[in-house]
Specification:
single chain; about 220 residues; alpha/beta; Rossmann fold; 7-stranded parallel β-sheet; 5 helices; about 35% helix; about 15% strand; globular
């Protein structure tokens, strides 16, 4: 059976990605910062991806890596502190690179693929007060293109817009999003997961960063 590892597997988007691959017959591995279980996940690796110690013992071959784990914080550019910078870049950029480095031999053995979860903020200033987050996701998209070129593997990225979750329903942010999008709806995690799966299993697509945002960045 083909295998996939999804970092941040228990997040809103992570669960949708896990479900999509599981439904398509994949053995699914995941990461979490604490002990958790899911009937769709074969094994959960408990680790802090922002630390220097990243290990995936027992995975010798891997068909797909989905670098989904990430963190979002807000701060005006003049007030971004060292803690904000460390929190965002240690996970969104350094953690993603470390995971990729650790699993690259296993992926090469399967001529596998990598899908990185970037953000529309890599190409758009978002909603303000997110310059450090935007920069981290810009780094993810740039790393995606370079990694595909250097390794010859199918490495691509998904750049999602605002993802629907319970805390945003009926909020001012949802209203703003709907008023500035071609399709007046936040992103459904299942729609993003479908794009991730397509990129992971497609052929001929290398180093592409595809924005899925219901047309928000067009306006």
């Amino acid at each position: 059976m083909p295998s996939v590892l999804v970092t941040g597997a228990y997040s809103n988007l992570g669960r949708a990605i896990v479900h999509t691959f599981h439904e398509n017959g994949y053995v699914v591995y995941g990461t979490s910062t604490c002990e958790r279980k899911s009937p769709e996940i074969e094994r959960t690796f408990v680790m802090d991806l922002s630390s220097r110690e990243v290990s995936f013992d027992g995975i010798d071959e891997l068909d797909v890596l989905v670098n989904n784990a990430g963190v979002f914080t807000e701060a005006p550019v003049g007030s971004i502190g060292e803690d904000d910078l460390d929190t965002v870049f240690d996970l969104n950029v350094k953690g993603l690179i470390r995971v990729t480095q650790a699993l690259l031999p296993a992926i090469r053995r399967c001529d596998g693929s990598i899908v990185n979860i970037s953000s529309m903020n890599a190409v758009h200033p978002g909603f303000g007060f997110t310059s450090h987050y935007d920069a981290s996701k810009g780094a993810v998209s740039a790393f995606t293109r370079s990694l595909a070129a250097q390794t010859g593997l199918r490495v691509n990225a998904v750049q999602p817009g605002l993802i629907s979750r319970d805390g945003l329903l009926g909020s001012g942010l949802e209203e703003y999003w709907n008023g500035h999008s071609v399709r007046a709806a936040m992103m459904d995690p299942a729609e993003i997961a479908a794009l991730v799966y397509f990129l992971a299993t497609s052929t001929g697509i290398y180093g592409q960063c595809i924005t899925i945002d219901n047309g928000f960045t067009l306006r």
